[in-house]
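Study both lines:
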Amino acid sequence: MAVLNPIGDFSKMRNFKVTFEYDGSNFCGWQTQAQGERTVQGELIAVLFKIFKTPTKVIASGRTDSGVHARGQVISFKADTRMKPLEIKRALNSLLPPDIAVHEVKEVDDDFHAQYSVKEKTYRYTVLNRRTRSVFLKGHTFFYPQPLDVTAMRRAAKSLVGRHDFKSFQAYDPLRAERQTVRTIKKLVIAKKENLIYMDVTADGFLYKMVRNIAGTLIAIGAGQLPSEEMPKILKSKDRKKAHNTAPAQGLTLMKVKY
């Protein structure tokens, strides 16, 4: 007869979901780089090794580029541990650098996958629209000193809501060149609060630099460089050259991931 371990049988790997935030200013994006640059994934893997004393595979809801921030990024990982979720959370926050903070750690079903289980994500692009720059907001907003017509931007944004081929807003990446480019934007809300303009985009998935390319085109429309009536034509063209410049990374934040 088998003898049970008196402290329990923990041979089965447990699956954990972690929700956290980070300031992307000093990271070369999410994904670990071969050259050893500082990345969010790299920091997490290093800390998890300290906690569990073994390499841990970390899966994210999606990658963010260099300089992009997150308020509600999600990862999942499996570990053979007796630690409670709250203990893991405390250990992570005690060891992670100041520009990463964990909000929640939950034990989830074995089939939960931070990337493949995603139903929708919300990104926010923030523009500081006033004559003078801000010392305090410079790393988290795109400073645009010229007036922007928010009404025209909203009018143009309406044509992007729904299921479309967003190839016109996909940045070139040889590793993703054959990727299917149809996505569903569920909501695109543009709000202005004093000198800040927020563009919140919720979709079932995003192409490479899709939100930044949409933001850049909407800013061009707000600045009068393009008429709002051009947006449906840009979308229909499936031609990246028809859309406007990519908005800078520091204005973009991953706000929420829904499962």
About this structure: The chain has a mean pLDDT of 93. DSSP finds five helices and ten strands in the chain. Residues 171 and 177 are 9 Å apart (CA to CA).
